[in-house]
């Protein structure tokens, strides 16, 4: 039996740290949350965990920048709002079973879509990390709200504007 559990990253940090290094860069985020009350600069972290038969098989973490200062950029007279970064982790023995796709749909429907609706009058976007890109592209998210060049040295124009707002180039 499958079930999703929505929580803050702070309340899930101990459990997710127990997964060890499969957490990759989120490891440091969870350690920070255990040692401090909150993330820096207003960042919030939301987690959706997927359990199958009471076992954690995967989770999605959304670093939400909605309350962060400095996440709005003016380019050619147009404002762009960075709303956050999405990550996915699947426990190795449960990979390639479709769990990450289920999480992507749930994260889009329950967290990202409502967030984007609040910012429909501005060029708002989320960023998907490498493995998150194809997962998010299979959800109902519009391409105008998804940046896929997280780990790149591209300029803001190349990374964001040309991807989500090609008319402004």
What's this model, at a glance?
With 169 residues, the chain is α/β, with parallel strands linked by helices. It has 5 helices and 7 strands; from the N terminus they run βααββββαβαβα.
Question: Mind explaining what this structure looks like?
Answer:
This protein is α/β, with parallel strands linked by helices and 169 residues long. It has one domain: Aminopeptidase. It is 32% helix and 30% strand. The chain contains five helices and seven strands. Strands 1, 2, 3, 4, 5, 6 and 7 form a seven-stranded mixed sheet that branches. A hairpin with a 2-residue loop joins β4 and β5. α1 packs across α2. The protein is globular. The model has no long low-confidence stretch (mean pLDDT 91).
Number of strands: 7
What value does the Rg take, in angstroms? 16 Å
Mean pLDDT: 91
pLDDT < 50 stretches:
none
Outline, from the CA principal axes?
A: globular
CATH class value = Alpha Beta
The first-to-last residue Cα distance is 48 Å
Helix content: 25-40%
The helix/strand series, from N terminus to C terminus, equals EHHEEEEHEHEH
CATH architecture classification: 3-Layer(aba) Sandwich
How would you classify the helix and strand content by structural class?
alpha/beta
What is the number of domains? 1
The largest β sheet comes out as: 7 strands, mixed
Q: What fraction of the residues are assigned to beta strands by DSSP?
A: 25-35%
- Tell me the number of helical segments per DSSP (H or I, 4 or more residues long): 5
What is the fold named in CATH at topology level? Aminopeptidase
Main attributes?
169 residues, alpha/beta, Aminopeptidase, 7-stranded mixed β-sheet, 5 helices, 32% helix
